[in-house]
Amino acid sequence: MYCKKCGHENDADAEYCENCGADLGSTHSQKATKSLNTTNKILIVVVIVLILGVLIAVGMLFTNPASVNNSPKEDIGTSDDSRGPKLFDSGSMKGSNAKYRDGPFTYQWETYKIDEGNYLMYGTYVAGSKTVKQTVTLKKYSSQSVEITAEPKSSGKSSWRTVTSLQGYTTVEDYYWGIFRPGREQAGPVS
If DSSP codes are grouped into helix, strand and coil, which group holds residue 110? Predict the structure, then answer.
């Protein structure tokens, strides 16, 4: 190591110049500080990456609470009557949903497209010894809303009806794939 004051070459671990006695420690501390800063930066990046990884994993767990058998987003068949409604979607899922307090359950559905603004879903909800056959309709109510009815509710009693916003979607079909279908995948039957 060279002395900054007189330029004399000293041993690498010398704290003072052998020639003029100048303090060489400031050079060591600068190198140590640079090394420490680099180490700290690497450590911070590693910690941030680990935190992001954990957050992504936790997010995936909360957004997929049930196993789902998805069908493709297309017409997957027709009814026996070619003039009748077309089978638009079908699927099944299993879960344990605190909302209904029925414990473990299965839910299977078939959705038929009647026309551009009308869809009909037939679902079967099974929880323990309870089986509920449910008919759900989605109808365009206005240019910005859809009417949803469920007969009966998942309890097997009474029916349920609501009119809700299309939530930014322009068609009932887009609303079905963007809002309604993911709701079935996460929670099972309507209401």
Answer: strand
Q: What DSSP assignment string belongs to 115-175?
A: ETTEEEEEEEEEETTEEEEEEEEEEEEETTEEEEEEES-TTSSS-EEEEEE-TT-SSHHHH
155-164 pLDDT, tens digit each: 788 898 999 9
Helices then strands, counting H and E runs in the chain, come out as 3, 8
pLDDT the model gives residue 71? 44
Q: How far apart are CA 28 and CA 19, in angstroms?
A: 18
Q: What are the structural domain ranges in the chain?
A: 1-63, 67-187
Helix H or strand E segment including 98: none
Which position has the token pair 């869809």?
119
Q: Which of 20-24, 98-102, 109-113: highest mean pLDDT?
A: 109-113
What's the predicted TM-score (pTM) here? 0.54
Vertex 30: Cα angle to 29 and 33 (nearest 5)? 80
* C-beta of residue 134 within 8 angstroms of C-beta of residue 142: no
∠ at Cα 129 (124, 134), nearest 5°?
20
pLDDT above 70: residue 32: no
CA count, 13 A, side-chain hemisphere, 87? 13
